[in-house]
Amino acid sequence: MIEGKSDSAIGTERAAASMNDVKINERVVVWRVVNNEKRRVLATLLKKRICEPKIASCDLHGKIGKEDRGTIQEEYEYFVHFDGQDRRLDQWISGEQFIELAPKLSTVDIGVCDVRLRRKRRRENEDELLSLEEIGAQKDHHRKAHPEKNIEKIVFGRYEIQCWYYSPYRLKKKAVDRLFICQNCLLYTEDRRRFACHLANDCKQMCPPGEHIYEENNIKVYEVFGALEKLLDTNSVHTSYPSSIDCPASLRMAKLNFYCQRLCLLAKLFIDHKTLCFDVENFIFYLLCEVDDDGNHIAAMFSKEMYSANNLACIMTLPCYQRKGYGNLLIQLSYEMSKRAKYPGTPERPFSDLGEISYKKYWLWVLLEFFDSNAMRKVEDVTVDDLEALVGINKEDIKDTMGPIGLLSHLKGGTYIVHNPKLDQDSSVERPGPPLRRLNAKYLMWNAKTFDRPKRRN
To answer: Where are the catalytic residues (predicted)?
Structure first.
């Protein structure tokens, strides 16, 4: 016999609960549509709120009778995090999606329970629930250490964009449904009228405050330096950027810093692991803009730390501009800069899930393109050190790319070689498709400076 409640009693207790009975941070089983298929998944309740009230009964004119005034039903919706999933997928769900409280097997004394029966039940539960608990353990720890999303949507240019993550904007409220951000100077406000007035009368900025270093068709990339001075209040400075005639160099530097801080706040809405928001003075920012008759529209960006061996710190493409190849184009740009600075590039870690996919696909594409070249078609093997110098990709990234597909060998003495996939009979590499956009190096108007190279170690 099992002491305490039986399994059937526990199951009945869970089934009897409603979503409104669930406590914050308690785990539940809910319905979720994944790839057009309805599945049972594990989730954690983060918060709940009252929906618009629904009236149980009223007359033909929409008036509530005296006897029915107490029948206004309050309905809730619930904000949940799905176990093992990225936080950008957190969403509001209805109470109808609730199935039961998550099983709490630790509450049952399993000391004398039949081992085979226990294992069978556990396997059935694990197969039924899309939990991915082992994969998501680190992400769950990261979620608990970071604040919940505080801005539901932003109005940016012609788009209203759903936000993914928390960003430390200085807001009047703890959380807002909509934040208005000027796409030119990045001023932000919760007040629609103030925002409209700013666009109509105040903002004189037409493009990012830096030199454009790349231009092809309707694409421009601007290089903007973080300032040497920090601002204490990121929302207190006037939003226009005076020319060199209108203000001293120190004020211009502060305003550049102000712009970069707001750029980081914007990026943080879509980058989970980003911590840089106000300490921008040692960073350079590269902004990709779509250009039309209405001006420059920020679509994507990446940052790079000065004197760093990393050729990229953070990269972000706004959701409304994704699937256009802009992220990959910026990755190509960062490596072209590394080549001109004469050092093998590598991005800063940790990766986001989307970032890891993008980089691994890019590295494999570059390496396979290299072996497809006429000079390499009959070369059987290349050392990782030589390959690093030839393609400009860090040797560790080369090993991480070619090792899992069986094209890397370790020789005596610590030397690694990469086998030519064209000549390796055992190789069956699934080739990634080419980038939607290819960087044309002749349009890059940029030369490496001292701070574009890593510091030399004594």
So the answer is: 348 (proton donor/acceptor)
